[in-house]
Specification:
The chain contains 13 helices and 9 strands. By secondary structure, it is α/β, with parallel strands linked by helices. About 5% of the residues have low confidence. Bound molecules: spermidine. Spermidine (SPD) binds next to strand 9.
């Protein structure tokens, strides 16, 4: 009987041990073979070789998913089906996520490479003291255009886009804030305006641009412009830089009426399961050489000052993509306008898109 009891106790101990190991592996913080990290980023926004490098260096398997708007990212994080360990929202969304208690404070002691970031991109109003977020890429919204396809015409202002000679020539970014912002700026209003009359005016003005709009697209804008299938695109600066690296006829301008200055930062959602690995990944991406390689690949503007010396001068000295503070100071950063106003922007943008013939 004693032998049977000892046998049962030993069996129970083995089961408990196995359960513990399985639980630890599921947590992702067990031995190297079982660690995972789920990263949620914009499409076309990382050099995937760097993901492999991170996996090789740390033994952590990265599950990588992409989104195409801040709003889509937020919905997915709130739904909670997949738990993300690192995400890359833009500034107004970070403000919203902090206020919604959706982010985890970062542990600076695990982010020594944060010293590489230019002070100009730290401590910004959407996250004072960078308690929850660290800079990834930044840029502007503007117009990429190919003068050769426009009979030599130069574009300088938002209002130039309403020229009837540009029928069916323009690609628009598929983003409510960007398109509504363009309408507002073209009328002399702020792109953070919440006055309903001004917003309706902006939508009316945008509707009158429709004959000139060829398509409202996401990352496809790059191929269409590179291959001369479209002459003009309203887009994020980094996409313009990428297009221009492939097609040297194209130029990029930040319109004179004003435009958007934006910042995409890395954050750890509160629901993250692999917090230590998330810090490891963020710190890896902040490394000077890693950031330089990532920037050369993605073509957006890096806030990583230490990375600049590893990058070609024709990239870092191009004022269109590394504009000095004198230019960026006259641009506006999107503010978190609150749920009701953001929903109103989205509704107007949807109405605008629906009336597309
Ligand atoms: N293809 C990568 C796109 C990333 C753009 N982020 C810009 C957000 C501006 N609010």
């Amino acid at each position: 009987m004693k032998k049977l009891l000892a046998f049962l106790a030993a069996g129970l101990a083995v089961c408990v041990l196995l359960l513990y190991i399985v639980h630890d592996l599921n947590k992702g913080e067990g031995y190297a073979g079982g660690k995972t990290l789920t990263v949620y980023n914009w499409g076309d926004y990382i050099d995937t070789d760097l993901i492999k490098q991170f996996e090789n260096e740390t033994g952590i398997k990265v599950i990588y998913e992409t989104f195409d708007s801040n709003e889509a990212m937020l919905t997915k994080i709130q739904q909670g089906g997949t738990t993300y360990d690192v995400a890359v929202p833009s500034e107004y969304m970070i403000d919203k996520m902090i206020k919604g208690n959706l982010l985890l404070p970062l542990d600076r002691s695990q982010l020594p490479n944060l010293k590489n970031i230019d002070k100009r991109f730290m401590d910004l109003p959407f996250d004072p003291g960078n308690k929850y977020s660290v800079p990834y890429f930044w840029g502007t919204v503007g117009i990429a255009y190919n003068p050769k396809l426009l009979g030599g015409k130069k574009l300088r202002n938002w209002n130039d886009l309403w020229d009837p000679a540009l029928k069916h020539k323009i690609l628009l970014i598929d983003g409510a804030r960007e398109v509504m912002g363009m309408g507002l700026n073209s009328l002399g209003y702020s792109l953070n305006d919440t006055n309903r009359i001004h917003l309706q005016e902006a939508k009316q003005k945008l509707s009158s641009l429709m004959p000139n709009v060829k398509a409202i697209v996401g990352d496809e804008n790059k191929l269409l412009m590179q291959n001369n299938e479209a002459a003009i695109a309203v887009l994020w600066s980094g996409d313009a830089a990428d297009i221009m690296a492939e097609n040297e006829d194209i130029d990029y301008v930040v319109p004179s009426e004003g435009s958007n200055l934006w910042f995409d930062n890395m954050v750890i959602p509160k629901t993250a399961k692999h917090v230590k690995a998330a810090h490891q990944f963020i710190n890896f991406m902040l490394g000077a050489k890693v950031a330089a390689q990532n920037t050369e690949y993605v073509a957006y503007s890096t806030p990583n000052k230490a990375a600049l010396k590893y990058m070609p001068k024709d990239m870092t000295e191009d004022k269109r993509f590394y504009p000095p503070p004198a230019l960026t100071d006259r641009l506006e950063v999107y503010e978190n306008l609150g749920q009701k106003n953001l929903a109103y922007y989205n509704d107007l943008f949807l109405e605008f898109k629906m009336h597309r013939k």
